[in-house]
Amino acid sequence: MTTAPPVRPILLEDILAARERIRGVITRTPLIRLRHNITGVPEIWLKLESLQPINAFKLRGAANAVALLSPEAREKGVWTISAGNAGQGVAYAAREAGIKCTVLVIDKAPETKIERMRDLGAHLIKAPFDACWQAMDDRAYPGIEGTFVHPFDDHDFQAGNATIALEVMEDLPHVKTVLAAIGGGGLIGGIGAGMRHVAPHVKVFGAEPETAAPGAASFAANAPLEFPQWQASFVDGAGGKSIFPRMWERLKDTVDGSIVVTLDEVRRAMRIMAEKVRVIAEGAGALGVAAALQGNVEGPVVCVVSGGNIDLKKFCELVVGG
Predict the structure, then answer these.
(1) Is residue 41 part of a domain?
(2) Same domain, yes or no, for 120 and 52?
(3) How many domains are contained in the chain?
C-alpha cells in the first residue's frame, strides 16, 4: 500500500497552469445546443468531451498528471486503474511523453475500450471490479510496479479536469447549472473546483445511474457512503461502489449534489443526442443529459458528455431498444 499525499484545495493558478500545460495534447471541445423541444425541460448545451483524441475527458487530467511527473517517476513507468477511459488517457499521455504504461483493467470493461488501450501501447492486466476498486484505495496491486497515476483521487488529474469549467464559462457566461457524471468523482470534483473560482453562483450537480449512486447517498447523509445495492450495467464509465473519504473532502464544498437517473432515462438521453445532434455518447456520457431531461434544474444547463467510447452495435441495441 502506498500512502496518499494530503488532500489540498485546487487553486485557480493550478487550473490556469494545467490549461497551458495540456494545450498541445487535448482538444478544446465545442459547446453545442441540444434543441430537444420538450416542454418543461430547460435549455440544454452539450460540452462534447467525446471529441477528445481518446473520445473521453480523461485525457485532460492524465496529460496534466503525466506532464508533472519527475524524471525519476517517468523512468519507472506509469500505471493506472480503469474500465477504459482513464486507461486510454494515461496511455495516450504516456505514449506522447515516451513513458511505458500499464493499466489494471476491470475485467468487465467493454472490448472496445480494451482494444483502444492496447492500441495506445499499454500493457493490460485484468482483475475483478472489487479488486480494482480496492487497488484504487491502496494505490498498489500485486505484481505491478511503477509510478501510480490515480484515475480520480489525484490533485493534478483533477486540476486538468477543471479546465472544462474555464471553457464552459468562456463559451456560455450565462450558464446556471452544470451536470456531469460521477464515477470516482474526479470529473465533477475538478469542474466544481473550477466553477467555485470563476463562477461560484453556478450550480454543479453530479449524475449517477440508479444501479450505482453512492454520490447521491453521500450528499443526502453529508458523509461518504458505500452503495451496497451496486450493480454492473452498460453505464460502465461511471458509478462506483462508494465515495472515497478523500474524495468527499473535495466534493462536499464544491458540488451541490447528485441526481439519480434510471437506465431507461440514460438510453433515452443517448437516443435524443443521436437523433438531434448526431452525437454518440456512451452510458456515462449521457448521464448529465438524462438528469437535465428530468426538468428539475435551472437553465441554461451545460451537460458534460464525458465520453463516447461504446461499441456501435451495443449503442444501436441500446438506443433502438430504449
Answers:
(1) yes
(2) no
(3) 2
183 and 271 co-located in one domain:
yes
At 205, is the secondary structure helix, strand, or coil?
strand
pLDDT in tens, 10-55: 999 999 999 999 999 999 999 999 999 899 999 999 999 999 999 9
Structural domain of 76: 59-154
Task: Specify the amino acid at residue 170.
Answer: E
3-state helix, strand, coil in the chain (%, to 5): 45, 15, 40
**Residue type at position 103:** V
The CB-side HSE value for 132 (13 A sphere, CA atoms) comes to 25
Of 16, 321, 6, which Cα lies nearest the Cα of 166? 16
How would you label 96-115 residue by residue, b for 16+ Cβ within 10 Å and e otherwise?
beebbbbbbbbeebbebbbe
List the one residue out of 40, 54, 133 whose CA is nearest residue 88. Answer: 54
Cell triple for 269: 438521453
The C-alpha atoms of residue 30 and residue 95 are separated, in whole angstroms, by 25
Q: What is the pLDDT of residues 252-262, one digit of tens each?
A: 999 999 999 99
Residue position matching grid coordinates 452503495: 227
